[in-house]
Amino acid sequence: MALSVTLAAAGAIPPALRGIILGIVEGLTEFLPVSSTGHLILLSSVLGHEDEASKTLDVVIQLGAVLAVVVYYRALLGRVVSGVMKRDPEMMRLTVALGIAFFPAALVGFFFHKAIKAWGFAPVPVAIAAILGGVAMIALEWYAKRRPPAEDEGLKSVTPSRALTIGLAQCLALWPGMSRSMTTILGGQLCGLRTSTAAEFSFLLAIPVLGAATLFDLVKGGRALFEAPGGVVALGAGLVTAFIVSLAVIAVFLRYLKRFGLTPFGVYRIVLGIVVLQTAS
Q1: 3-class DSSP state for residue 49?
Q2: Quick check: 201 and 158 in contact, CB under 8 A?
Q3: Helical axes 63-72 vs 74-85, angle rounded to 10°
Q4: Coil, strand, or helix at residue 143?
Q5: Which of 68, 122, 147, 221 is the most exposed place for a label (fewest CB within 10 A)?
Q6: For residue 198, is it within any domain?
Q7: What 3-state DSSP class applies to 147?
Q8: Is the residue at 157 inside a domain?
Q9: What does the alpha-carbon distance between residue 203 and residue 181 come to, in Å, rounded to a whole number?
Q10: Which of 37, 202, 237, 9 is nearest to 130 (CA)?
Q11: How far is CA 131 from the centre of its chain?
């Protein structure tokens, strides 16, 4: 049975409701290591929305999650801006680390954007990425529990070399279904950061990464989105919903990571990938 459900018309679901549904999925999954883009692609396929406008909406709706990070970390971001202006060493190091981690994925995404969108925005590639990522999460979680505890001073511990490792790992997230959150957290774990510190750095890194991806997709596919029937309404509803849900998820997920591990998310990814592959066959 094919995964996609062909609707009677593109407008079968009201644009505002569609935006709210996508916003909820985006908000719930953006900062969890399960791939928000992958979930949005699968949802759009089920709803029968797989045109260029829908693909652009799946990316641009991430702006709501970016705004949630800015609000949640507003005090820290204020210190970063003030510290950079005053040449504070700690804030300068954090800014440089974010820049180093941002660059690899930005470079790869710029050159391979069209190929990624043409090949990766489909259920089967997303399912394969979900399974591979789930296996990697479970394996690295097992490895992390068996090595000595890392000396971790929070974001101060993100050195340039660690930032580069995280940035290179983030390149894997350009494969829809892999998850930017997952790859950056695992990259941080591999170079000796605590899971909670890696997650916090991942959240901050979302601001330049998702911001750049949103702007790039708007330039490339914004016209198709804005000209599509109900496109603007769906985008507006999705952004507001994604912002509200993301704000709650960030706080809950950080508390969760301090008590539990990533293995349950790895199991979920594997199960999801298998179900999608069986359904799509």
Answers
A1: coil
A2: yes
A3: 80
A4: helix
A5: 147
A6: yes
A7: coil
A8: yes
A9: 8
A10: 37
A11: 17
Backbone angles phi, psi at 10, to 5 degrees: -60, -25
Please tell me which residue, 215 or 49, carries the higher pLDDT value: 215
Distance CA(155)–CA(153), nearest Å, equals 7
Question: What is the rounded distance in angstroms from the CA atom of residue 133 to the CA atom of residue 26?
Answer: 19
**Amino acid at position 209, single letter:** V
The H or E element spanning position 258 is none
Nearest residue to 231 via CA among 11, 28, 7, 3 = 11
pTM for the whole thing?
Answer: 0.83
Question: Does 4 map to a domain?
Answer: no
Q: Residue type for 256, please?
A: Y
Helices (H), the chain: 15-29, 36-47, 52-60, 63-72, 74-85, 89-120, 123-145, 160-170, 180-190, 195-227, 231-257, 263-280
In a domain, 19, yes or no: no
With beta carbons less than 8 A apart as the criterion, state whether 194 and 184 touch: no
Q: What is the largest CA-CA distance in the chain?
A: 61
Domain total of the chain: 1
Cβ neighbours of 13 (radius 10 Å): 17
Q: How far apart are CA 42 and CA 225, in angstroms?
A: 19
Domain that holds residue 243: 31-45+52-280
Instruction: Measure the CA dihedral 248/251/253/258, to 10°.
Output: -160
Band of residue 218 on the pLDDT scale cut at 50, 70, 90 = confident
Lowest mean pLDDT among 168-172, 217-221, 239-243: 217-221
Which tokens belong to 90? 């700690």
